[in-house]
Amino acid sequence: FENIEGKSEAMQTLKKRAKIVSQSNSTILITGESGTGKSLLASSIHKESPRKDMPFISVNCAAIPETLLESELFGYEKGAFTGADKNGKLGKFQLADKGTIFLDEIGDMPMHLQVKLLTCLQNRQIDPIGSSKPVDVDVRIIAATNNDLEKLVRENQFREDLYFRLNVIPLSIPPLRERPEDIAIMIDHTINKYSALLQKEISGIDQHALDILLSYS
After folding, report:
1. How many CB atoms neighbour CB 171 within 10 A?
2. I need a labelling partner for 191 at 20 to 30 A (CA). Which of 41, 85, 113, 126 fits?
């Protein structure tokens, strides 16, 4: 977890808890605003887990068109539909077998796929499109969202049973405005990173510029 910058009490507590839960196979739900580092935390949990030598497969549920998301996640058999690859295609769950699958922006998953995901969580099996029998998968699921899933459940936009299946171990990443003591640390980290990348000699940041960043909401 050394790649996750932050010395604040909130981040130290989060990293300590994430390190503990990384050793289990339980499903994790990471919540936090956009840009707080949900994918970095998920990757760190995988790298610290007993599955670290197996695949870590990341899927952004909001970035893939709804018509393609099912085949991306669960794969399909040859000839399953018009335009399908003649050899069929393995889905992300099968590619992540024995490893971890990270389902980012899970709140944007359409309802009919939420049912298939729930079945996968319950039975540890997936149903590829066009297949007559389910396929066993051994996958640790980490989901993430910047949405209020409880609110989506109340509005009937997210299945309540799936929410409870995903929210076995909740981890919440606080935004920077709630841990301003981490801002200077992250600035130093960023300066060092890009100084090396761009071959520039940048020693630090002007105090006035730092004050502006510290006062920004």
Report:
1. 19
2. 41
**Position 161, amino acid:** D
Selection from 18, 22, 21 nearest residue 37 by Cα? 18
pLDDT tens for residues 64-117? 988 889 889 998 877 666 555 666 788 999 999 999 999 999 999 999 999 999
66-74 and 111-123 helices, crossing angle to 10°: 10
The residue count for the chain: 217
Number of neighbours of residue 19 by Cβ within 10 angstroms: 14
Between CA 66 and CA 133 the distance in angstroms is 24
Distance from CA of residue 33 to its chain's centroid? 12
Query: pTM, whole model, 2 decimals?
Result: 0.89
* Distance, CA of 87 to CA of 101 (rounded, Å): 24
> Rounded to an integer, what distance in angstroms lies between the CA atom of residue 162 and that of residue 122?
10
Q: How far apart are CA 173 and CA 164, in angstroms?
A: 19
- Report pLDDT for 179: 93
As given in the structure block, the two tokens for residue 140 are: 């640790």
User: Cα separation of 59 and 166, whole Å?
Assistant: 16
Q: What are the structure tokens assigned to 165, written together?
A: 């299946």
